[in-house]
Specification:
There is one protein chain. By secondary structure, the chain is of the alpha/beta class. The chain has a single domain, classed as Rossmann fold. It has 8 helices and 8 strands, in the order ααβαβαββαβααβαββ. Helix 4 links the parallel strand 2 and strand 3.
């Protein structure tokens, strides 16, 4: 995590509804926001590090698509061979600046490249043994998701792995309603009030569009991955790993 973590109070005052954006305001509180908003976020980070360690190959690259403040790559830096390169990709210039600052603070010495890319328009990947999308695909317009995943798959090395963390819908409306209720209780336990929950939900409504877990699985299999498995599931959050 970034060393200077500010408290997320973005939605604690009544405000005019607008679409959620990863600008400076969000970037400044992002690490606090994600740990309080994503169940078992730190454990998911640890699990990704564990899995990536088994697939990352010296002389190849690890890609984090939607790298935000660099948390995943910083965690990986502590365990991966120094000969593994890092490529962090994000659409937000503010996120990339924060990521670069965090790399300097944490003393990341390995070769790395941070790129500003709109993943809706595709992505260039070179010599990748691991590709991570942590809470990123859900922000890609549904129209472009299959094309993007096929593009990623085609450019990855053989025997490489793809790690996908996503917010998901329940498989039917009953479970979906229950899971969302449980999720909002989780946010309340992390000291978000009902106004904050409602205003953030409204801000994300047209921006974050989740699929069902089985729809994501089908998408990965149709893309061409040989093996796909679920390594994490908590109500409306899931983690999947796929191998080319």
């Amino acid at each position: 995590m970034g060393t200077n973590t500010n408290h997320d109070d973005i939605f604690n005052k009544p405000q005019k509804a607008s679409d959620f954006k990863f600008g400076q305001t969000v970037v400044s509180v992002f690490d606090d926001m994600v740990t309080r908003s994503v169940p078992f976020y730190l454990e998911i980070q640890r699990m990704m590090t564990e899995m990536a360690s088994d697939f990352a190959v010296a002389g190849t690259n690890v890609y984090d698509l939607g790298c935000s403040t660099g948390t995943t790559l910083i965690n990986l830096d502590k365990v991966l061979d120094p000969a593994v390169g890092f490529v962090g990709i994000d659409e937000s210039e503010e996120m990339l600046k924060k990521c670069r600052t965090n790399f300097e603070t944490e003393g990341v010495k390995r070769k790395f490249d941070l790129q500003r890319v709109d993943l809706n328009q595709g992505v260039r990947i070179e010599n990748a043994s691991v590709v991570v999308m942590c809470l990123t695909l859900q922000f890609i317009r549904p129209l472009y998701r299959e094309k993007l995943l096929k593009e990623i798959f085609q450019q990855m090395n053989d025997n490489s792995c793809f790690i996908l963390i996503e917010k998901v819908l329940g498989e039917d409306s009953l479970f979906n309603r229950l899971f969302i209720d449980y999720y909002y209780d989780f946010k309340r336990r992390n000291h978000y009030n009902d106004m904050e929950i409602a205003q953030k939900r409204e801000a994300l409504e047209n921006v974050l569009i989740p699929y069902k877990l089985l729809e994501n699985r089908e998408l990965l299999l149709n893309t061409g991955f040989r093996y796909v498995d679920t390594f994490f599931k908590w109500y409306n959050f899931s983690g999947m790993i796929a191998v080319k």
